[in-house]
Amino acid sequence: MIKLLLIFVPSLVLSWDYKFSGTDWPGLCSTGTKQTPINIDVNSTVRVFSNEPEYSWIHFQMTENPLQANQDAGGYKFVGTFGEMNMMQGNLPVLSTNLINFHFHSPSENFINGQQFDLEMHIVMQDKDQRYNFVVFGVLFRVENNAYNSFINKVIESRENHVIITLAEAFNTLQIKDYLQFSGSLTTPPCTENVFWMLDTKIRTISPEQLRFFRSLWSEKMDYAGGNGNNRLLQPVNDRTITHFIGASISLGYIGMLVILFMS
Asked: Which residues cross the membrane (predicted)?
């Protein structure tokens, strides 16, 4: 199924745009019941703490790649072999994937507690056991005046030059202990469902100049919502369960974490 989807996606790319932020996309994009992006109300999530048997944590293994960015109908994308991810329960892997691309949306597609962010990176993966059509790990960024993100700087440089890059540079640690998980879809046509979504609760920072680069990719271009971005509008959560996996260091100060991460 995955191979067939990848074959048909290039032809679909030519037939859609962001003029109406995805509200005019046909097929499953308009009829699906588990579509992405969504707004996550953290207070309504199912919380799983690290001392519980259902708790799962994420381990990435990244590889270096010489590459150059591609700009297509969806936005700003990198395609290649970027490494692997294992979701672990204790020492037992319960989900193993290959990383096949990463790309950017600005402003963000997913919201947390009604808040939209300045930039969102999606790391797209294939499930080695093919239980899910795709697996996606989302990373959110917000602008701060004195911020500088060296990973994003390399991403920007790669538009004009071949750059050696590893996704590991986007992370302080490759062991992710605190994240949100839900069932969703691709956020672009054909809006395939049965996508296993994870959203990092760590909000990263970028500079105003770095954000300006992404906004310039579609500034004044009507295909990008009149130059306003490549984000699909929020979709109904419906009856989906959103799980918040909470690491040990976070669980000790859970209320304080909510204030710092989601209310600032």
From this structure: 242-263
Report the distance separating Cα 182 and Cα 77, nearest Å: 23
Res 5: pLDDT: 44
Mean pLDDT by 10 residues, the chain (264 residues): 41 70 96 98 97 96 88 82 96 96 96 98 98 98 96 94 91 96 97 98 97 92 90 97 85 47 52
pLDDT of the residue at 261: 54
